[in-house]
Amino acid sequence: MPFYRQVGEIPRVKHTAFHKPDGKSLYREELFSSKGFSGVYANKYYVHMPTSVLSVKELAPAPSVAWPEAPLTYYHFYTDRLKRPGNFLSARDAMLRNSHTIIHTAHVTADTDLFYRNAYAAEYVFIHRGSGVFLSEFGKIPFEPGDQLIVPRAVTHQLKFKDFKDNKIVVVECDTAYEIPRRYRNEYGQLEEHAPYCERDFKTPEFMPAHEEQGEFPVIIKAGDRYFEYILPNHPFGVVGWDGFVYPYSFNFRDFNPKVGRIHLPPPVHTAFKTENFIVCNYVPRPFDFHPHAIPAPYFHSNIDSDEVLYYADGEFMSRAGIEAGSVTLHPGGIPHGPQPGRTEASIGAKGTNEWAIMFDTYSPLNVTRNVEKCLDKDYARSWLTPEKAWQ
Fold first, then answer.
1. pLDDT exceeds 60 at position 389
2. Are strands 55-58 and 75-78 parallel, antiparallel or unpaired?
């Protein structure tokens, strides 16, 4: 996580008796730790026992969207043309996946009082459109377009939108944690001067008074491809205080400080976050390369160990014609990719770009789902033939 936080009321010494105001009963401490007891952790203090459960049942599985016969080819698909109504959980459409990662898009059209917890994966939530507040046992985080919410594994949470006129999110599950790249941090963990952001750019949970209500509170817990409904007797956000390094936080890609080079710089210089399975890059407006003969458009390349996924949020991307907001391109490893015809030449002499996009470079091949087939640009793979025949 970015840095140490202390929020609310906690005892002076951890793992010691922490009495409620009556002086007799105790607040319940939960160690929320990673990598056994060897990774970063937080200590949370609950009004009631966090283990209390009234009932557990497995929910019916979602229909399979696997597309096993999908060809190995270049893909472009329009996620804004695939809209399924629902709340921040039920509206999700899985587009791409492998054994470590699932990439969803969702047009959120409804609110819900359900609580959600992903037991097996951390989640990255990109707010493309819409605003509201993220709620969890750690507190509240207001969100707006461009925010990238990092939700550690097993955090119970809700997304509450201000309205339902036009909300769009991208959710990426990963079975390993989202982290700040090591090269951005000094030996003490502080972000160095060359990093594309600093600690003050991150939004961390704001204090929220503990919910002490008792009753029946449904929590949907995702465990891989299975879903369970837990009914809890206590409100999940009944935390009076916490401290540590594990907590949800947010960073807006409009605050990303891009790198500029004499010649074209490769995607890793735009890295915002990393996991053990992929990197997340932020593409934002920036001046182009300053060598007198520089070609700002990317060179053709075969990234043989990665699949490249780009989600286009706004603006114009230098190497692609006809992309619209919500477009996604997938360029699988094993076949070369690069600018479409005419885009290399057109980039020469350009002074800057107005692109807004996020990219995921995965280290394992991604499988395309039937949801992609529903909003697919079927001619995209032929768009490198000639300038006259390029996709418009």
1. no
2. unpaired
CB-CB contact of 164 with 108 (8 Å) = yes
Report residue 211: phi and psi, to 5°: -85, 120
Per-residue pLDDT, averaged over 308-332, amounts to 88
What is the rounded distance in angstroms from the CA atom of residue 204 to the CA atom of residue 186? 21
308 half-sphere exposure, CB direction, 13 A CA radius: 20
Sign of the alpha-carbon dihedral angle for 345, 351, 354, 356: positive
Domain boundaries of the chain, sorted by first residue: 55-63+84-237, 254-382
Mean of the pLDDT values across residues 119-136?
Answer: 98
Contacts of 391 (CB under 8 A, 6+ apart): 76, 321, 322, 340, 377, 379, 380, 382, 383
**Helical ranges in the chain per DSSP H:** 343-347, 370-374
Measured from the Cβ of residue 245, the count of other Cβ atoms closer than 10 Å reads 15
Quote the tokens at residue 9: 């009321």
Report the candidate in 205, 121, 114, 130 with the shortest Cα–Cα distance to residue 169: 130
DSSP string over 216-240: EEEEEEEETTEEEEEEEEE-TT-EE
pLDDT of residue 319: 61
At residue 346, the pLDDT reads 81
pTM of the model: 0.95
Measured CA to CA in angstroms, residue 101 lies from 15, 80, 87, 149, 316 at distances of 35, 21, 21, 17, 28
CB-based contact 159:112 (threshold 8 Å): no
For residue 327, the model assigns a pLDDT of: 97
| Domain 254-382 = CATH 3.40.50.720 | no
55-63+84-237 and 254-382 share one fold: yes
CA–CA separation, 177 and 236 (whole Å): 22
- What's the pLDDT tens digit per position in 87-99? 999 999 999 999 9
What does the pLDDT look like over 252-284, one tens digit per residue?
999 999 999 999 898 899 999 999 999 999 999
CATH topology of domain 55-63+84-237: Jelly Rolls (2.60.120)
Q: Report the pLDDT value the prediction gives residue 388, as an integer from 0 to 100.
A: 53
